[in-house]
Amino acid sequence: MSHAATVFLFTFGVFLGMLLFLEIGRRIGIRRLQDDSGDAAEGIGAVDGAVFAVLGLLIAFTFSGATARFDTRRQLIVEETNDIGTAYLRLDLLPADSQPALREAFRSYLDARIETYRSFPDIAAVRKWFGAANELQRQIWRQAVDAVRIDGALPSAPMLLLPALNAMIDITTTRALATQMHPPRVVFVMLFGLALGASLLAGYGMTGSKIRSRFHMLGFAFVMATAIFVILDLEYPRLGLIRVDAFDQALVDLRESMNRDVPGTEPK
Fold first, then answer.
1. 268 in a domain, yes or no?
2. How many domains does the chain have?
3. What average pLDDT does this structure show over 41-51?
4. Rounded Cα–Cα distance for residues 140 and 105 (Å)
5. Residue 175 sits in which domain range?
6. Are residues 218 and 203 in contact, defined by beta-carbon separation less than 8 angstroms?
7. Quick check: pTM over 0.85?
8. Which of 32, 150, 159, 209 has the fewest Cβ atoms within 10 Å of its own Cβ atom?
9. Is 267 within a domain?
10. 235 touches 58 (CB < 8 A)
11. Cα dihedral 188, 192, 194, 198 sign
12. Helix %, strand %, coil % for the chain, to 5?
């Protein structure tokens, strides 16, 4: 089952659970009104307000955090594109006979990086391409270190090329760790628990009328479930409906630009 389908089914379960707790709360409220006087409801509003305030803050913080992490992952794609492009351009500082092998290694490396993220959610394929990219990193580094020492390399080559390669290598670790950055699970457990608890209190507070307001019950549950769905989808932008895949085009465009350095090869 896909991640999007899993998240949808989970949030649909939360939606049904909230409807159930709304009804349970309403029935508890009706029984209490039958047994107690009207004064028994005094002060309950303050408790309800506190619970809903905590729920609102938790949704706001988790949504804000998920959006920030989503934007960070998109920005990291741009940074990696710039790092690879900069390092590739600085190969011009090397002797002419050292450049073709390194440029070919760069093209293979960029292919591996593109395939790494295209392979989601196939984790085995992701690890395969990630390992291939790491091996090409080591190969490129060794070749570059040897090339800057050859007669004919510009004196500035070590100072300009090697730091650019280092940045290109470092960004891969940053991107890999960014995919694993999520709130602790206890935050989501607390969010779901508060959503159900707030539903119980909301249902309890709807006992002023004998007629059940299905519109408000459905609306409350739908809005809360939708917010939870969007938060979960934003947290996994390679698996859900909200994705960062469009930004991968920057790497694809860079790869196509590298084809111009190959005689007789046109960009796809």
1. no
2. 1
3. 72
4. 7
5. 3-261
6. no
7. no
8. 209
9. no
10. no
11. positive
12. 80, 0, 20
